[in-house]
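Hi R.,

As promised, here are both runs. First protein below:
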Amino acid sequence: MASSLNDDQEIDVLTQKIMNEIENKSSKELAGSDEMIKILHLTNMNNAKILVQHVNEAPTNAERDLGKKALAKALLQSVWHQRLYFIVRSVIMGVLGALVTLVYLLLFHSLNLILEIPLGIFSFVFTLAVSRLFDVQIVKATRLIVDFLESHKSLMNFVLSHF
């Protein structure tokens, strides 16, 4: 049991190193790093197989198992980040779109189908542009949300399974 706990701690350390490496490098630095490109493309089945083969080249079975668990956990955390990023961005876009429509209604006191179509197009483009302009802040907020949800497993499971 103590060995398993020690392995989990080692996995957590390795996973955190991988995630820190991904999160703290600029896209140009990541583009120049073959290892980081492989990690970022874990969702590509061929690249994942290649990484697992590299892990299989480790000298001992314990190191191989530890490497595989660390890669799986890093992949899982990456997927959580992507899903939560999408959820946060969608909520922000929805709220901004609703605010644009509300402002229009408050100014003109009416809305019909002919006016709603161009307003919907404008609203979508506006919210997409705003969410792209504040991309760095959205990513930071997503990281904070992921850190919070990691300590609240039931809430994390609810968010990831219902949104």
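And here is the second one, sequence first, then its structure tokens:
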Amino acid sequence: MLFSLYPTLTQNYFILCFVACLGTLQWAAARNHKPAISFLGRWGLGRLGQGVGGLLVCTSLIWFFTATPGLFTPGLAGGELSSLFVAGGLSALLVARLAGEFWQWRYRQGLILRYGLRPTQDDRYGLRPTQDEINALGE
């Protein structure tokens, strides 16, 4: 591997892959209403999330092509590029899942603290209170 021969190109390409994959995951989470991979939490599930995801992808591409010196000279080979892409993509997925889990945990804690509600076990995301708990609030 030639990672050590081209440190600037290697670092810049990894950052490009990480940020672009993170933007793609955010856009997909916003488009499909998946809070589990939204690093913006529930606020990122609409047009805001799609815009932030698109902005991350475009910004990472513009930054990479302007900040990488000697981009078109011989550099990293195909195997090195693909391994950096996989590392960046998996890192972005890990960050998105951790952020999504954090926001879901904060939401569940807010339900418990504000209303004394516990999320249901059968709820897909564990975010909705049970009908008995809702009825108990009205009594």
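A quick note on the second one: The chain has four helices and no strands. Let me know what you think.

Best,
J.
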